[in-house]
Each structure stands twice: as C-alpha cells, then as structure tokens.
Amino acid sequence: MQFFPGTVIGFVVSYRTSSAYERYNDGRKQWSSIILAGRTFARLIWLHCPDAPRPFDPKEPPTEEERLRSIIEKKTIINLVEGFAVSLKHHLRGEHGIYYEDLYRAVKELYVIPDLACFLPKYASPAGRLIDRHNLDFTSTKTCASADQPMETNNANCDGTIDTPQTASTLFEPETHQNSERVNDKSLPTSRQQTLRPHVNGSLNPFKPDRELLPAYNPPKSSFVEIFPICSIFRALWKVEVFFCMIDIKMNDYVAKLQLCKVIDVPTVNSLLASILTMSDCLTNLDKILTTPIPYGYIVHLKLVIWGYLIFLPFQLVNTFGLCTIPATALVAIAFLGFMRVGQEIENPFGYYLNDLDMDYFCHHLIAPELAKITAWPPPDPSEFIFSPSNIPLLDNRDLRSGVDLLNSGLSADQLQRLLSTRQSSMSPIGTV
Fold first, then answer.
1. Same domain as 91, residue 239
2. Range of the domain at 389
3. What's the domain count of the chain?
4. Stretch among 65-74, 115-124, 401-410 having the lowest mean pLDDT
5. pLDDT in tens, 127-164
6. Residue 323 and residue 259 share a domain
7. Model pTM?
8. Which residue spans traverse the membrane (predicted)?
9. What is the dihedral of CA 22, 24, 29, 30, to 10 degrees?
C-alpha cells in the first residue's frame, strides 16, 4: 500500500509528458503540411500559369515582354511561400517584424518590382507606420549609414513616386525588450548552427535595408517570464505585428487576378486556393499550440504533489532499503523530475533548445531549396523527353526503338497496343516459376 501513491503519481506524470509530446508531434505535422502545401502551390504557379495575362491562343504566342512579366510575377509570388514560412518561424519564437536576415530579403525588397509595386503597402508606404523592431542585440556595431548621411532608398509608392530619403537617426532607435540579451554563437549547438543558410554577401543585395537586420538565428537567454512563469499571462498585452497574414492575402490576390483574367481553369484555381487554405489552417493550429499552454494550476498542483511525495519517500523506504535509501530516493527523484522537465521543454516546441523543432532546417533546407529547384528551369514541354532518342518506351518488350523511331515506323495505334498486350500476356503470374 505504501507504493500506491507513487504509482498514481507516475501515471499523472506520464499523462503530463504524453500531453506535451502530443503538442510536439502536432507541431511537426503542421510544418509537414506547410512544406507540402508550399511545394504544391509553387509547382502550380510555375507550371500551370501561362506566360501571358490572357487565355492561351496558339495563333498569338506571348510576347517577350509578357513572358518576362510573367516570370517576375510568378517568381515573386513563389518567394512569398518562403517568406510565409520564415515569418511564421519568427512569430512562433516571439520575434516580430521583418528586419531579419532571412526574412527581409524575401518580402521587404520585393515591392520595388513594377509588376507588383507596393504589394505590401503597410510596410512600403511612408504614410504607414514602420513596424517596431523590439530590438535584440546586434551582431555588429556598424550601422547602415551614418546619422549625418541620408540613407539610400528605393521605395516606390503605388502612385509611382519615390519616398523621400530618411536618415539613420530617425530610423534607428534601439529599444528594450524581453529578449534583448542574446547568447554567443559559440555556445550554440553545432547541429543547429549547420541548419542556417550561408551569409549572403552585401554586394549581392542591391537594395539596402533601412535598418540593420537582425540575425536569422538569434536564441535568447533565460527571460524573466521563464524564471517567473506566472508573468506569462501579461504576454497578451505586448505588441505583436502579424506580418504573415499580409503574405497570405497577397497570395490570394494573385490567384484572384489569374481567375479574373481567365488564364487558368477552375480545377487549378481550386488547387491553388486549397494550398493557401492549408497553410492558413496550419498557421491557426500552430498558433493554437503556442497560445494554449497546459493549465498553470495543473502544473503547480502536480509539482507540489511530486515534491511532497519525494520529501516523505525516504521515510517509507528506510525500513526496506536501509543505507540504500538515499540513492534509491535520488533515482526516483531523477525519474519524476526528469519527466517533468522533458514535458516542460517539449510543451512549446518552437524555441531554440535541442528538444525543439528545428524550424530553421525546415525553412532553409527543405522549403527554400525546393522552391529554387522548381523555378530553376522553364516549364518543360513533355514532347521534348517523350520523343527524344534516349526514350525507349518498349524496352520491357525487348524493342530498342526510341519514341521517335516508333513514331516514324509506320505502326498503327492498334499494332502498338498489340505489342504491349503480347508482353502483358507473356508475363508469368506473381509467385509462379
């Protein structure tokens, strides 16, 4: 009977850990859905959208300017998929805004393209308030420009005018924030450092940011909220910029434009909208995991019960274990408190710990390379590889003629089908000799 409380507490701790792991596993499933939806959306945009803003007409092929505009538009919209994932990653980590090395280049600088001028008006228009940085420590003390020198801007407004230059002194005002202290990069785990994208040389970036960009990987030290969890109830009062919602809206706007011009059919429109809806649904589910922690009262009560049990455990074991009571109590304490710590770490799987989801790997090694591979080549013509000399469609029938040779051989469709039927009838059933 003396071990009955320990058994009950063990079940409760197991439930606590399994609930936390369920949240961790759900977060991984949502990121898998985002990767799949982003890949599908990019392929549909790149392969199924025509090269002209009008229905396809063989008699009027698209002009060079129309093809150029189409490639720029499609590449810009596909870049938004990566921007959506990266901005969601920073949002889940409590890092709001767009001034990050991996996010700024994907979304902020694209509004200078004439085809999609000012597609993020809140962040491009001088009348709109620039988002606050909630500054973290800078990796470099160099600023983009001196306070006396006007900063170069390429901000094109929707009306075609250019924004007036602004000085660094008006744009660069450090603030204090809960995550203002950052750990040294040398102390970070090597496995997570390897998931980062190599630093982009500034000479490859023609558009200078109006503020110094924060590093893409910026893990914080222990914050005040982590030391005193009761203060987490005030997080709702902190200012949050929901930027990825603007990206979602702009992707819908582009699909609506294609639908209005009647350049894609209804099934393609439905597939594009379904991909966007999937990403939005995953965003909602991830936000639900982030903003719905395990009830604080349950955690406090569980800790009180566990510590009370561990305090009185030696008095229950001393008659049975004798001198081994101390190591036995230590092992039991390590087991119970270890499960509690594991559940606490994986309850919110979006941080920088090794037990958290490697969202940097998802964004920079799964999503970004796939999008780059999709847009690396123009949409292929199936006839180029179907009727190429290297394609031997009847190789299983021991016919070494290529697709071009079969096309020029004078065979009829019925004769070719009989060749395939002969091969099928001569095959032995599975499992026979």
1. yes
2. 383-426
3. 3
4. 115-124
5. 333 334 444 443 333 333 333 343 343 444 433 333 43
6. no
7. 0.68
8. 295-313, 320-340
9. 110
